[in-house]
Amino acid sequence: MNSRPVQVIAVSGGKGGVGKTNVAINLSVALAEAGKRVVILDADFGLANIDVLLGLRSTKTIEDVLDGRCSLQEVMLTGPAGIKIIPASSGTRRLTMLSSLEHVGLIRAFSEIAEQLDVLIVDTAAGISDSVVNFVSAAHEVLLVVCNEPSSITDAYAMIKLLNRDFGRSRFRILANMVADEAEGRQVFETLNNVCQQFIEVALIYTGAIPFDQHLRDAVRQRHPVILHAPSSVSARALRDVSKKLQMWPLPSRMEGRLLFFIEQLTAVDSQRRGIGERRDG
What we know:
Structural class: alpha/beta
Order of helices and strands: EHEHHHEEHEHEHEHEHHHH
Shape: globular
């Protein structure tokens, strides 16, 4: 079993439309350019779209792995800068609602690729569904993407509160996206931080701000990461700055450093969540 430190980073955002998936893709490319071996797990089972956003075509998904039709290695797509993508099957929640046999199979599948990556980026769905909570709770690091909209702040706060109350998560990294400049990004962070400090005991860490520019819009339309499409653009430079910070984050140690520990946690968190639900219903 692999015991190498592997960063597992959940990229989430509460509400939809905050540019979460675009951030996940570009950060992955920036990390790959820096020499990291990166895999993105598309964990949006309602609207799996990383392959679409990159102009790739997937013929197999992680559901095929669970059904024993192929290996995880065969499912992975190769994207820009050599990043690997594990595409999800839209409309399935099986990855967080596994039978015992499927759980063993998934651990075996990830053990086969464990030596091939340094960072696993988990791109979650929007909202705070059970699936999203499972993935965010199991990850070593949580990067919440927010924008300068009241609904974004409200939904991010709701996710932070839920994860803190039910799963003891007390540290969150915050990235302001689609802002005018660094000053607006700081303002978005301070707004969220002030709300959290009033009601819950958590530590929010400002990770940076990604300005929205025309180059980013064009890159999305052309299904290409802006970091490669317009390397010198304001948005691309900001994303690279964030990726440099990410590389300085402390690596997990001991059991938490194992990729397979993340997979184990998915089942553990699901059981914990179901227990919480049963106690509340009772």
